[in-house]
Specification:
single chain, disordered C terminus, mainly alpha, 8 helices
């Protein structure tokens, strides 16, 4: 429900408002008239939905299946909540909405891959996961530093000079970029396994590893019922319905 509400609002704002904003096409427009920039109602609700979404992820992480990247995910959620709150309070909402749009692009593909996995459409799930890997790496390691960090580190300084909020904001954005690099490593690792084995084998983040590759070679019809996940929510890998090879959960 939270995912649907988030993306419904995000899609509405991005289609109705963001496509017509000048700062989407020219990031220098993010700083024109700052800090006396009016906050449009749609962007206000966009912020509220995104903030509530990341708060929900922060708490739900403790009742979800614990994975190896628990610390990374928890750090990400703290940074995300802090960034959203800080940018709202300091009226850095224009660049904040650009960050939302950039991150939503990969998240939508990941959730589609999970749904395909729930429906046991393995080929479609693998295809969507590889698509997610490409979109994630291009958006987080390419567009994010060249588009977002460039405007916050250089264009913002040129337009407004030095002020305390600038450094706090940029430090948080750099921490986010470090997390992007860590996740990209896990995604590339899983994507490589998917290509070499013909399918996404397992969740490399899971604390519950499969005992050996023998389990993968046992025909499904002959495998013990207790080791087979009936709907993608149980089984040896303990992925709780997530992509069996996914390396990134709800939010980046």
């Amino acid at each position: 429900m939270v995912f649907c509400l988030r993306w419904e609002k995000a899609a509405a704002v991005e289609e109705k408002t963001m496509c017509h904003t000048p700062w989407l096409w020219n990031t220098r427009q993010c700083w024109n008239g700052y800090p006396y920039q009016p906050l449009m109602p749609d962007l206000h609700y966009y912020y509220i939905v995104e903030l509530s979404f990341y708060w929900s992820l922060m708490f739900s992480q403790f009742i979800d299946v614990k994975r190896k990247d628990f610390g990374i995910m928890f750090t990400h959620h703290i940074v995300a909540v802090t960034l959203i709150t800080f940018s709202y309070v300091t009226n850095l909402t224009r660049v904040g909405t650009l960050i939302f749009c950039l991150h939503d692009a990969a998240d939508i593909v990941l959730e589609a891959a999970k749904m395909a996995n729930y429906c046991k459409c393995q080929k479609l799930s693998d295809l969507l996961f590889l698509t997610f890997a490409i979109v994630f790496i291009v958006s987080r390691l390419g567009i994010y530093p060249l588009w977002i960090l460039n405007t916050t580190l250089f264009e913002l300084y040129e337009a407004l000079g030095n002020f305390p909020a600038l450094w706090v904001f940029n430090v948080l954005l750099m921490v986010l970029q470090i997390l992007h690099c860590l996740w990209s490593y896990l995604i590339i690792k899983t994507a490589y396994k998917a290509i070499s084995k013909g399918k996404v084998a397992k969740d490399s983040r899971s604390d519950i590893e499969s005992s050996s590759d023998e389990e993968e070679t046992v025909p499904r019809s002959k495998a013990p019922h207790s080791t087979i996940a009936s709907n993608g929510t149980s089984g040896a890998n303990g992925t709780n319905g997530y992509l069996t090879g996914g390396t990134c959960s709800e939010e980046h």
